[in-house]
Amino acid sequence: MNELTDTQLIRLAPRQEAAFEALVRRHAPGVHRLACHLVGAGSADDVVQEVFLSVHQQLKTFRGEAQFSTWLHRVALNACYGLLRKRQPEALEHVPEPHSLQDPVGESENLQLRERLAWAMRQLPQEQREAVALRELSGLDYAAIAEITGTELGTVKSRIARGRGALRALLTARGITAAG
Predict the structure, then answer these.
(1) How many degrees, rounded to 5, is the angle at CA 58 between CA 36 and CA 5?
(2) CATH class in words for 108-180
């Protein structure tokens, strides 16, 4: 099944569970990565489960007008924002910066950097966070992001540029600079 294209798997999935499982294996890591940065690592597994339950139920209605990955990212974004809406709005406005890790054994600097980046991503306005996550975490091109978000290409480019700038400023203010 792994050698089949998404389109072939989508056609087989209603009749063969193995085809749907192949789609999940192929796309779940990317959905999880996106969810981690939008809702946090603690809720990402729940989002992934919700996304693929929804995809399984709606797969018969997928018309193929967009690529499957584009449609899947839209479903994932909707699931993330649904979860965020359920949380208390005031808790989202003031997300605390992660504390330094004080493990006697010592945590890796990479883990600290990932936590700080996730914190910084949560500080961005939703539109910028979404665009940056789709570009940098999901590796989508600008046209695909425009299709997913329903915005103009120039708007996507602008959101990504502003989001990257804001991330740079947030991280630099906390002593994290790009290695050159």
Answers:
(1) 75
(2) mainly alpha
